[in-house]
Amino acid sequence: MTSGVKGGSRLKVPLLDLTAQYGTIKEEILAATMEVYESQQFIMGSKVEELETKLASYSQAKYAVGVSSGTDALLISLMCAGIGPGDMVITSPYTFFSTAGSIARLGAKPVFVDIERHTYNIDPECLEEGLAAMSADERAHVKAIMPVHLFGQCAHMDRIQALAESWGIIVVEDAAQAIGSEYESSDGSLHKAGSMGTYGCFSFYPSKNLGSFGDAGMVTTSNADASKRLKILRVYGSQSKYYHKVIGGNFRLDALQAAVLLVKFKYLDQWTERRRENARLYRALFEQEGMEQIEVPAENKGKHIYNQFVIKVGTERDALKKYLAERGIGTEIYYPVPLHLQECFRYLGYGPEDCPVSVDAAARTLALPIYPELQREQIEYTVENISSFYKL
After folding, report:
1. Looking at 222, 241, 265, which one is the last position of a domain?
2. CB within 10 Å: which end of the chain, N or C, has fewer?
3. Dihedral, CA of residue 240, residue 245, residue 251 and residue 257, to nearest 10
């Protein structure tokens, strides 16, 4: 591998470098946004409709509704499903705050079940056990399951959907990190993230595989009535201006963000393949180094799109992070405190023993740089320094 030295200085390996990507599409972005400036139509409009059509098709859904963020995609989906005070939604504790926060904001109760040890996605066995342990009255209040396709890999949707159907519960996919990822069903068929539940929720936060220039999101669905209701809810609950039959919110997707996303969408699969190539290189280099201390991300059947490349190490995780930072290598901890232990959810009464796999993941995982523009020598330098750490 490379020595990591060029011209007497160490390499810099940022966790994410959006300027590198912008440099390759700058002229297209400026032309697309200039169209919006010239039109002076900044709210909704033809750019948003074009993006919705393309992303619905891409995600194997009949409809897509552009919204203001990934968080609002989750929130409006739950609103559309009629979820509110007294209801319960089952989800994972090992995810970004918005997953459970959107449930709690509507007065519903997040119910946490633990994750799989190797994929970090919700564990169907824990889900089944959790539902079975509930009383008939409790189960009657469970209105949805919200699996998270974490880091770019789909959860085990066959079993989740089967459980949902058997108990009469809808599925809301949190696909914020998973646009373009695929799940292979037991019959061998492939399904895109966002096409399997009643709702699929995407985030276009700048760090995502398909990132906007600010906040933006999308909800996919193949239910025509749900699509119509989502479009009403995102404009304050009005179908005709100033006439409100339901209470909605301001969840609109801006035309400027849609214009940016339409340019980037042309390159999405290309960028995703680069992420997958980078993941393969990491795997090969870790194997070459014989580093048994490192557990690389699991890959189920289907397609992992690597929004993050998350390794699992031992109790030395924080020391490793510091060591890499001192050598110019950016890393991140996703997520240091699982949601069931967050202070704001203390009222739910969970303890560390309730979701031990999530607690373990929070203590031992570390995300390495994986963005498409990452160079081979930067990956080699990263692995070289991780190897050096373990040889100290």
Report:
1. 265
2. C
3. -20
- Nearest-CA neighbor of 310 among 336, 341, 289? 336
Question: Is the CB of residue 175 less than 8 Å from the CB of residue 208?
Answer: no
Q: What is the pTM of this model?
A: 0.95
Residue 200: inside a domain: yes
**How many whole angstroms separate alpha carbon 301 and alpha carbon 122?**
16
Please say whether the beta carbons of 219 and 68 come within 8 A. Answer: no
Residues 348 and 286 in one domain: yes
Domain tally, the chain: 2
Which of these, 392, 30, 1, lies nearest to 213 by C-alpha position? Answer: 30
Residue written as tokens 């992303």? Answer: 55
Does residue 112 contact residue 126 with C-beta atoms inside 8 Å?
Answer: no
Burial of 245 (0-12, 13-18, 19+ CB in 10 A): exposed
Which band of pLDDT confidence, cut at 50, 70 and 90, is reported for residue 6? very low
Q: Tell me, what CATH number does 217's domain have? A: 3.40.640.10
Residue 70 confidence (pLDDT): 98
The residue ranking higher by pLDDT, 202 or 239, is: 202
**pLDDT score, position 392:** 80
**Do 46 and 158 belong to one domain?**
yes
Q: Which domain holds residue 294?
A: 268-390
Q: Are 191 and 183 in contact (CB under 8 A)?
A: yes
- Pair (119, 244) in one structural domain: yes
Find tokens 């993006």 and name the residue: 51
Around Cβ 288, how many Cβ atoms within 10 Å?
A: 11
